[in-house]
Write a structure and sequence with these properties.
This protein has 69 residues and is α+β, with helices and mostly antiparallel strands. Helices cover 19% and strands 28% of the residues.
Length: 69
Amino acid sequence: MSSTNLTDAVWRKSSRSSPSGNCVEVGFAADGRMVGVRDTKDRSGGILEVSSFAWSAFLREVKADGLGR
């Protein structure tokens, strides 16, 4: 799979993040096909990219297992 350009992605910090804790941000590609996950404290350290379909499936599983609480 080729890398999607997430340069113009809209990033948002996890609502579970704390000011001094481990934090992640999720960014959505403009075309809506890919989702990126990166470390808030090391934004240039790399991005994990997954399809929006895979991201949705991941969120469903987390919520179904009660891990999203």
